[in-house]
Fold these 2 entries.
Entry 1:
Amino acid sequence: MASTAKSDQTQLNGDLSCPCACKTFKMENKVTVVLGAQWGDEGKGKVVDLLAVDADIVCRCQGGNNAGHTVVVNGKEFDFHLLPSGIINTKCTSVIGNGVVIHLPGLFEEFNKNESKGMKGCRDRLVISDRAHLVFDIHQQVDGLQEAEKGKNSLGTTKKGIGPTYSAKATRNGIRIGDLLGDFAMFEDKYRTLVATYKRMFPTLEVDIESELAKYREYASQVRPMVRDTVSYLHREIKNGKKVLVEGANAAMLDIDFGTYPYVTSSNCSIGGVCTGLGLPTNVIGNVLGVVKAYTTRVGDGPFPTELHDETGQLLQQRGHEIGVTTRRVRRCGWLDLVVVRYTAMVNGYTSLCLTKLDILDTLKEIKVGVGYKLNGKIIDYFPSSFTELSSVEVEYITLPGWATSIEDVREYNKLPEQAKNYIKAIEEFLNIPVKYIGVGQGRECIISLE
């Protein structure tokens, strides 16, 4: 999810919906899910954008505008934070599900920026759940104040108000889209109560309540045509044979239950979040595609066992242009950690993998892969839940020969260097999961299919 060359961008050729130069990737009639298998920024947006060509509906199920993806079309950048990546496909309906938290000012800013660059009609093909919770500016203020209170123990959040909004949801004083579109007097009462609650916690908070209410009265009229009960809508469309694609925001190692807590996001970005964030039962889910970057990156604080603090780490950062779309923060880089991917595969049940940014390894003579953890000198067969334990593990590596040649122009698996194929095979054999797609460059046309 970076913003320059060799990033998780998608270079399209032709119109916005389907470039004539790319292959068509077929989906099953069951729901296809795309999930990040590491700490995020693996290139899920690019994969979703690819698969959306064959989809009827693309859904976001959790997270908020702390996520980010850039698509490049004819030299123009389209940034998505709340909007599903499939919104660029004019033949596809996009859904923001009940599990997503929505900052309406940010959503309309996202609309305006992308429409000014030529993405027309996107408001007409977006459906928003009436059960989705609202992120207010006061949530963002509280996010920053809570981070400041933690001092040196801060979590490095994006300060987008995501955590406070999910907290309000869990304590049952959150406010939903449906509240905004119902009796406005009741919405006003709930908003005033919310502000009063936060002001008791943070007396220095300054909120112009009347101004905010006036803005939300206007937002209500703008968002109303997009809002509906997405649960019944999705079930009806699935029953009618529509192809549904779900893109998970963030990634499994940032899952609030299974990630490196407390250095996580505030939602379930693993497979469970798909069901609770859209109201879908497990029996409608078909393929679960895990997206794995060919090395490992992480934004912000938290344990990172295979992190490199040397020239190789700098090389990966520079060649991969590892800079966050939302935060603009430089990502920490390290070797591929298959212990992490094996753990997230246990949780998510990947049926196949997409290996992205393989070309970033082109210049390396040797490549290391983490395949085991030792704690106090002993191999452990579990992924530590404890921050202290994970920070203390010793990583066991295997070393594979690099290919030391550019693979950016390769479009067929059998034309990859033998060493690159061996790297892919090593990943498949360790995880016992097939690699279905391989990313060797920026665009859709740079994804090699092994189907």
Entry 2:
Amino acid sequence: MSAESVTAIQRGQVDLLDFVNWSGVECLNQNTGHSYDNALKQGYREDEGLYLESDADEQLLIYIPFTQVIKLHSVVIKGAEEDGPRSVKLFANKEHMGFSNVSDYPPSDSITLTPDDLKGKPVTLKYVKFQNVRSLTIFIEDNQSGSDLTKVQKIALYGTTVETTDMKGLKKVEDH
């Protein structure tokens, strides 16, 4: 098990991969030969030879809906030192965002990735901003070298699911 997995598990956080609603995932400006599957899906994202690559310019906009409400704690974004992401904005519960309106909304958090972060180091987010997340939009604004292509080898999201209270169950207890 990698150090990043151990660190995340020790904090009680889990890889949220199992809670992604795959039919709703979208990625704008991806090279169809190097799609988001390569960076997000189990097995693909562990393969050093596979990656998500931008198409027309360096920007990528990734929308990830979840099958249940989650709390997002940290993110791992892995990429090469040259063309890996640098400026990343994260938006909780913002749907139908495009490159034309991404700057209309304040991000829930903004991170600037260093070459060291791109080796697979978890970046802790402003946890208070990610308490009831139904979807996450990741806007990769630029890359390390300022080139036209951004490559992302892995994106992993760590957090917990939000336990929902069964109100019917509470009602029955009160009746007794």
